[in-house]
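queue> holo job accepted (zinc ion)
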Amino acid sequence: MRIMTWHGGDKFRLDHVPDPSAEPGKVVVRMDSIGVCGTDVHITQGLFPSIPPKVLGHEGSGVIVEVGDGVDQSRLGERVVLNTTSHCGNCSACTTWSESRCENADCTSGMFAEYATAPSQSAVKIPDSLDLEQAALSEPASCCLSGAEMMRIDDTEIGVVVGGGIMGLFTLAFLKRRGVERMVMSEPVKARREMAKQFGADLLHDPTEGDLTEFVKDHNGGYGANIAAEVVGQPKLVAKCVEVVRPRGQVLMIGVSPEGAPLPVDMYDLHYREVTLKGAFGRGDVFARTPAEIDQINLDGVISGRYELQDVPQAIVDSGDGKGVKFLIKPNG
Ligand SMILES: [Zn+2]
Ligand SMILES: [Zn+2]
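queue> job finished
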C-alpha cells in the first residue's frame, strides 16, 4: 500500500510498504476520508511537538476489510470512524479523568495511508445515514462535544463562540443542542459567519465592525453572556471571553493557546464576578457517541476540498491558509 510519511518540517515522502494484516483484537480499515487538522499544520510548522519520521492524519473514516483473532467476523464491511486511542476503563485516567487519556492506550496507526490498523474498540460504527466524508469530522467534533458537555447549561439564555472554524462551528452546535437559548457567532470571515447559521447561530457578530461585549449586551438587556467559548487559541481572545460573560459566567477554552502563554486577565475581576474558566483539550469520553450527534447537524458545504494521497503536502498548506473549513485526503480515490 501507499503511505505518506512526514520527515520533519514541510518534507513528506510517498512510500510503498506491505499491506497491513490484522493482529489479534485489531481491524484493518480501507481508508475513505481523512481530515487535515490544524494540528497537522502546526506539526509541519514546528509549533506542535512531534518526532519524524511519522505518518500523520488522525481524523479518518473507512470500511473494515480484515479482522484479527477475537474480533467478530460480522464486523467485516462495517463503515467506521477511527478513534486515535483505545481505553481500558480501569486505570486512574479512565476512572478519574477521561478515557481518551487512558494510561494503557493502544494507538491507531497514522491515517494518511490507503489502510490503517486499529484496536477493534477504536473502530466505531457510524449511522447508515451519515456519509463517510462527513463521518471523518467525528474526531474534531468529539473534542467540541466533550467541551460543551463540561458546561453548566440550566437557564442559559445566551452563549457566545469566538472563532468560526470547524471547531467553533461544532462548539456552537453542541452548546445550542444542549439547551442554550440563543447562540452568537463572532468571526471576521463572512463565509464562516454565514455557515454558523446552519450550525444553529442566532446572532452573527463581525469583530471588525464593533465590540463583542457591547454587541452581546445590546442583545441581552444590558447583560453579558452566560457562556463564552474561545475556539481560536489567542490569549487576548480568552480575555475577551472573560469580559463578555456576566457574573457567574463560564468561559470555555477550546482554542490551543501557545504553550507558556500567561492569561491576560484581571484576577480581581475573575474573583469578584465569580467567573469560571474551563480548559477543554480532547475527546473526553464522547468519541463513540459523536457520529450520531453530528448526523443531527446540517453539514452541507463543510468539506472545502478533496486531495489525493500524494497531495497531502499541498492540502496541509491550503488548510493552513485558512481558505476553507475542512479539507479531506482521499487515499483510495
Ligand atoms: Zn484533529
Ligand atoms: Zn485506562
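queue> The longest strand covers residues 26-35.
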